Amino acid sequence: MSELSQTLIVKTFTFEGSGNTRSLTVSVPEVLDPQYGMYVWPSAVVLSQYVWMAREELQNKMVLELGAGVSLPGVVSALCGAAVILSDSAELPLCLENCRRSCVLNNLSHVHVLGLTWGRASPELLSLPPLDLILGSDVFYEPEDFEDVLVTVSFILRRNPHAQFWTTYQERSADWSIEALLHKWDLKCINVPLETFEANKTHLAGSTLPGNHTVQMMIITNNRI
Ligand SMILES: C[S@@+](CC[C@H](N)C(=O)[O-])C[C@H]1O[C@@H](n2cnc3c(N)ncnc32)[C@H](O)[C@@H]1O
Asked: Can you tell me the distance from the alpha carbon of 69 to that of 99, in angstroms, rounded to the nearest whole number?
């Protein structure tokens, strides 16, 4: 970890290769600011590990990250060969600025960053290109936003019926559930056990962030497929 200024900290994550595969080192900025999108969350490290383990199927795929903030999973996807669009709330310019900073730190000049507010049928949402994959780490943290997240996901999956939404969330409350909302928006979900992608660890990618937090991984798809 190195300090660039009083408020900007660069965090480094290294995803381990196996056999002949090289490891991948990613640097992302954290800014000392109260907004959630300025920090890497434990869920982001877990989703990035999933992306890293699936890297071969990501080659040349079109990927959108929602609520990207520091954008670790999106940046890992781009470094693994996907075409990536990073997004965060159109009303949070500092978070969008942080997405851009992550791209600069990783020499990703071809990655687009756009304002995409969950639940809103904005011109940016309507003009998205065809997508293969949506990523979202720790976007289910504020229950009042759950439906807006799923409205956006459902809209994209109706336009891209074979796309998937890969998402991780941190368990913060026992009564957390999106089951009824999945049904309402014609979506289905499978849980992916962390041990299947070597993420059931307190240390991941050289980081202690996962710690003892309970993070879950889900794949959400269109219910009609
Ligand atoms: C808990 S943070 C997670 C950030 C990042 N994905 C991670 O896991 O490190 C939630 C993110 O959702 C973004 N966000 C909050 N409300 C939003 C909204 N209504 N539309 C789009 N993004 C939003 C925040 O700016 C923030 O980047």
From this structure: 6
